[in-house]
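ingest -> validate -> predict -> emit
validate: passed (alphabet ok, no gaps, 155 aa)
predict: started
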Amino acid sequence: MCEINKNFDDLYKIYRSKFNPTEHAGKTRESLMKSMPHKRGVYLIWKRSDDKHKLLYIGSSGKIKKGNLPSGQDVRKRMFGSSTPYKFDSTDIFKYGPTTTGVPPARYKKSVRLSDIQIEVFATPTNVAPSVLEHLLIQGYVNQFKDLPEANQKI
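emit:
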Protein backbone atom coordinates (compact mmCIF):
# COMPACT_ATOMS: atom_id res chain seq x y z
CA MET A 1 0.00 0.00 0.00
CA CYS A 2 1.27 3.47 -0.85
CA GLU A 3 2.46 5.43 2.19
CA ILE A 4 0.08 8.29 1.48
CA ASN A 5 -2.83 5.92 2.16
CA LYS A 6 -1.54 4.54 5.47
CA ASN A 7 -2.81 5.61 8.86
CA PHE A 8 -0.74 7.55 11.39
CA ASP A 9 -0.06 4.60 13.72
CA ASP A 10 1.43 2.54 10.86
CA LEU A 11 3.54 5.41 9.50
CA TYR A 12 4.70 6.41 12.98
CA LYS A 13 5.90 2.86 13.62
CA ILE A 14 7.73 2.70 10.27
CA TYR A 15 9.44 6.10 10.61
CA ARG A 16 10.26 5.58 14.27
CA SER A 17 12.29 2.50 13.33
CA LYS A 18 13.98 4.27 10.39
CA PHE A 19 14.87 7.57 12.07
CA ASN A 20 15.34 6.57 15.75
CA PRO A 21 13.86 9.77 17.20
CA THR A 22 15.24 11.38 20.32
CA GLU A 23 12.86 12.27 23.15
CA HIS A 24 12.95 15.60 24.95
CA ALA A 25 11.16 16.97 27.97
CA GLY A 26 11.62 19.80 30.44
CA LYS A 27 9.75 21.55 33.20
CA THR A 28 10.83 24.98 32.01
CA ARG A 29 11.10 26.65 28.63
CA GLU A 30 14.83 27.06 29.16
CA SER A 31 15.47 23.39 30.04
CA LEU A 32 13.36 22.18 27.14
CA MET A 33 15.10 24.53 24.72
CA LYS A 34 18.54 23.37 25.89
CA SER A 35 17.60 19.73 25.27
CA MET A 36 16.56 20.36 21.65
CA PRO A 37 19.11 19.34 19.03
CA HIS A 38 20.70 21.67 16.51
CA LYS A 39 19.55 19.36 13.71
CA ARG A 40 17.00 19.60 10.95
CA GLY A 41 14.07 17.23 10.87
CA VAL A 42 10.54 16.58 12.05
CA TYR A 43 9.26 17.07 15.57
CA LEU A 44 6.16 15.76 17.27
CA ILE A 45 4.77 17.45 20.36
CA TRP A 46 2.86 15.06 22.62
CA LYS A 47 0.77 15.66 25.72
CA ARG A 48 1.58 12.99 28.28
CA SER A 49 -1.23 11.26 30.09
CA ASP A 50 -1.63 8.14 32.18
CA ASP A 51 -3.28 6.01 29.53
CA LYS A 52 -1.93 7.25 26.19
CA HIS A 53 0.01 10.17 24.80
CA LYS A 54 -2.00 12.64 22.74
CA LEU A 55 -0.35 14.14 19.67
CA LEU A 56 -0.71 17.94 19.67
CA TYR A 57 1.51 19.05 16.80
CA ILE A 58 3.64 17.80 13.90
CA GLY A 59 6.21 20.25 12.55
CA SER A 60 9.45 20.34 10.60
CA SER A 61 12.56 22.43 10.18
CA GLY A 62 15.13 22.67 7.43
CA LYS A 63 15.05 22.54 3.68
CA ILE A 64 17.06 21.03 0.85
CA LYS A 65 18.44 23.46 -1.72
CA LYS A 66 20.05 22.93 -5.13
CA GLY A 67 23.01 20.59 -5.03
CA ASN A 68 21.34 18.50 -2.28
CA LEU A 69 22.59 20.95 0.32
CA PRO A 70 20.79 21.48 3.63
CA SER A 71 19.50 24.95 4.43
CA GLY A 72 17.09 26.62 6.80
CA GLN A 73 16.60 26.44 10.51
CA ASP A 74 17.32 23.61 12.90
CA VAL A 75 14.62 22.19 15.19
CA ARG A 76 15.57 24.37 18.17
CA LYS A 77 15.37 27.63 16.21
CA ARG A 78 12.13 26.61 14.53
CA MET A 79 10.39 25.68 17.76
CA PHE A 80 11.49 28.58 19.90
CA GLY A 81 12.28 31.41 17.51
CA SER A 82 9.83 31.30 14.64
CA SER A 83 6.26 32.32 14.18
CA THR A 84 4.19 29.22 14.89
CA PRO A 85 0.61 28.40 15.84
CA TYR A 86 1.91 27.62 19.33
CA LYS A 87 4.14 29.21 21.93
CA PHE A 88 6.39 27.98 24.71
CA ASP A 89 5.88 30.89 27.05
CA SER A 90 8.08 32.13 29.87
CA THR A 91 5.65 30.87 32.51
CA ASP A 92 6.46 27.28 31.49
CA ILE A 93 3.23 26.73 29.60
CA PHE A 94 2.76 25.42 26.06
CA LYS A 95 0.01 27.51 24.48
CA TYR A 96 -1.76 26.71 21.24
CA GLY A 97 -5.04 27.08 19.39
CA PRO A 98 -4.93 30.66 18.16
CA THR A 99 -8.05 32.70 18.66
CA THR A 100 -7.07 35.25 16.03
CA THR A 101 -6.02 34.88 12.43
CA GLY A 102 -2.45 35.46 11.36
CA VAL A 103 0.82 34.38 12.89
CA PRO A 104 1.85 34.92 15.57
CA PRO A 105 -1.59 34.89 17.15
CA ALA A 106 -2.32 37.45 19.82
CA ARG A 107 -4.06 34.95 22.09
CA TYR A 108 -4.38 31.20 22.50
CA LYS A 109 -7.36 29.23 23.72
CA LYS A 110 -5.58 26.07 24.95
CA SER A 111 -2.59 25.43 27.17
CA VAL A 112 -0.61 22.57 28.71
CA ARG A 113 2.08 22.68 31.39
CA LEU A 114 5.54 21.96 29.99
CA SER A 115 5.95 19.18 32.54
CA ASP A 116 3.14 17.38 30.65
CA ILE A 117 4.81 17.76 27.23
CA GLN A 118 7.13 15.33 25.49
CA ILE A 119 8.78 16.06 22.16
CA GLU A 120 10.21 13.58 19.69
CA VAL A 121 12.71 14.72 17.07
CA PHE A 122 13.24 12.70 13.91
CA ALA A 123 16.58 14.05 12.65
CA THR A 124 16.69 13.65 8.88
CA PRO A 125 19.75 12.97 6.75
CA THR A 126 20.66 15.56 4.11
CA ASN A 127 18.93 13.62 1.32
CA VAL A 128 15.53 13.59 3.11
CA ALA A 129 13.35 16.70 2.93
CA PRO A 130 11.92 17.22 6.44
CA SER A 131 8.71 18.74 5.02
CA VAL A 132 7.97 15.54 3.07
CA LEU A 133 8.23 13.40 6.20
CA GLU A 134 6.13 15.97 8.11
CA HIS A 135 3.43 15.93 5.44
CA LEU A 136 3.33 12.13 5.25
CA LEU A 137 2.85 11.91 9.02
CA ILE A 138 0.14 14.57 8.92
CA GLN A 139 -1.57 12.76 6.01
CA GLY A 140 -1.51 9.56 8.05
CA TYR A 141 -3.06 11.43 10.95
CA VAL A 142 -5.81 12.79 8.69
CA ASN A 143 -6.38 9.29 7.25
CA GLN A 144 -6.79 7.83 10.72
CA PHE A 145 -8.54 10.61 12.67
CA LYS A 146 -10.18 12.68 9.89
CA ASP A 147 -8.65 15.87 11.31
CA LEU A 148 -5.33 17.58 11.99
CA PRO A 149 -3.54 17.35 15.35
CA GLU A 150 -4.96 19.98 17.74
CA ALA A 151 -2.22 22.60 17.34
CA ASN A 152 -1.76 22.20 13.58
CA GLN A 153 -3.88 24.83 11.85
CA LYS A 154 -3.50 23.84 8.21
CA ILE A 155 -1.35 21.93 5.78
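The mean pLDDT is 88.
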